[in-house]
Design goal:
alpha/beta, binds NADP nicotinamide-adenine-dinucleotide phosphate, globular, five-stranded mixed sheet, 9 helices, 2 domains, six-stranded parallel sheet
Length: 277
């Protein structure tokens, strides 16, 4: 967790344990380069035991603009920094920490807005969404869908109690189904579980109950085209892949760290880099 860059260079980081797999440095460095900004973004391995010390050390460093937070620190962060937006109650996890000019730190969650960005043009009121998984990403998804005015949410999860808790916290109408249940007729299907990720089993789900105008959104981005998205495309359903959310949440964090809007006109080039790397 040593700082190892030129002094006076503003920088931000992504922290987690493990951290080597993170795509965040590639995204932020791509934008910094396109904007010709003198700043840096790097991955920093921080274990759970090191987290309080990391926060104390970095908050005293005026060059440090903040950090993105990944597994396993998204919940622990709630107790370490200010929460002006009420993220604890609304989502229950922080993924972005920003250092203010006076050295104080505030946390927020850009996953929810990043998730919503690619589907924000549609009207989701009175619509039915199915969310697979009941972990950290599902929390952000439920909050975002609630914000978008969703009519009803069904959570498909192996832990029914946890899923019910999420529905209650998000205060949305809905229900919970086990993993092997037949999907209900829904307008939006979201995979917020790691199923389908490289190294994990595929998500086995029958898409037949979905109507022809349903949208299938997979948060998994490695691989980019999961078995779920392939099946959805075969049925000619609209699809959104995990890179859209990844880039969307990073864009919001970039603005908070560096005070500049990312050059989104280069999105296609960035997507190609992310797929290749
Ligand atoms: P997480 O907090 O560990 O939650 C994973 C959820 O999936 C949990 O509810 C877990 O069940 C469930 N699950 C895991 N393995 C399962 C299995 N074999 N069968 C059934 N359910 C299973 O992880 P997360 O942070 O929510 O991330 C979930 C996925 O979203 C990951 O693939 C991650 O890469 C992706 N993600 C993508 C983005 C993006 O920007 N595109 C952002 C965040 C996350 P239990 O509750 O029973 O443990």
């Amino acid at each position: 967790m040593t700082k190892n860059i030129l002094p006076q260079t503003p920088y931000a980081e992504v922290i987690g344990d493990p951290i080597a797999h993170s795509k965040s440095p590639l995204i932020h460095k791509f934008w910094l380069e396109k904007l010709a900004m003198e700043a840096d973004y790097r991955a920093c391995h921080v274990s759970a035991a090191e987290l309080p010390g990391y926060i104390e050390q970095r908050s005293a460093d005026p060059d440090w603009r903040g950090c993105n937070v990944t597994i396993p620190h998204k919940i622990a962060m709630l107790d370490l920094v200010a929460d002006p937006g009420g993220v604890r109650e609304k989502i229950g996890a922080m993924n972005t920490i920003v250092r203010q000019a006076d050295g104080s730190l505030m946390g927020t969650n850009t996953d929810a807005a990043g998730f919503l960005a690619p589907i924000a043009d549609s009207d989701w009121s009175r619509k039915h969404a199915v969310v697979i998984g009941a972990g950290g990403a599902a929390r952000a998804v439920l909050f975002a869908l609630k914000q978008a005015g969703i009519g009803e949410i069904t959570i498909v999860a192996r832990n029914g109690l946890k899923a019910t808790g999420l529905l209650v916290q998000a205060s949305v109408k809905g229900g919970v189904l086990p993993m092997d249940a037949r999907l209900p007729k829904a307008d939006l299907l979201i995979n917020a579980s790691p199923l389908g990720m490289t190294g994990k089993p595929p998500l086995e789900v029958d898409l037949d109950p979905l109507p022809g105008d349903a949208l299938v959104y997979d948060l998994v981005y490695a691989p980019l085209e999961t078995k779920l998205l392939r099946a959805a495309k075969k049925r000619e359903l609209a699809v959104v892949d995990g890179l859209d959310m990844l880039i969307g949440q990073a864009a919001l964090a970039f603005e908070l760290f560096f005070g500049a809007t990312p050059p989104m006109e280069h999105d296609e080039e960035l997507r190609k880099l992310l797929v290749a790397g």
